[in-house]
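Re: the request from the purification team.
They wanted to know what the chain is likely to look like in 3D before they choose a buffer screen. I agreed to run a prediction and write the result into the notebook, where they can find it.
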Amino acid sequence: MTTSGDRGERRIALAAVAGAHGVKGEVRLKLFSDSVESLSNHKKLYVGGSERRLLAVREGKSPVARFEGIADRGAAEALRGSLVEVDRAALAPLGEGEYYYGDLIGLAAFDRADARVGTVVAVENYGAGDLLEIENEQGKRSLIPFKPGIAELENGRILLDPEFLA
């Protein structure tokens, strides 16, 4: 997911707050990466749009984190549903063929005849691979497998096989 800060900076969501954990301000997280290292590698994070320092984070079935300024269960619960983001510029450079989901959202999608068929509005992964959610001009949405021959990232846009559009 990508959002914009007050100064127009692009941010990438690394996690979402799933709810409070205990009574001392800790929160349960839904990670959008493989491990809590994606969070602990950054000094500056944004939680619900506010800059916060990560005080502690630990792995688990549901990872748990503690942020500066969140000292009780009520404050932690108020963050439920908030995104934990980092400035895009703070992320590591990507290798060939790698991408952040946030970089895909908003890209135009074209068929092989170069006709625009829609825009990427979301990226999902239910375990079998990435799916692009494409919205056409009439507002209809389709989930398309992000796989070679079906949908591919080429020159800053998505080229896809329109047979997969519902």
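For the purification team: Helices lie at 37-40, 73-78, 101-104.
Please add any questions underneath this entry.
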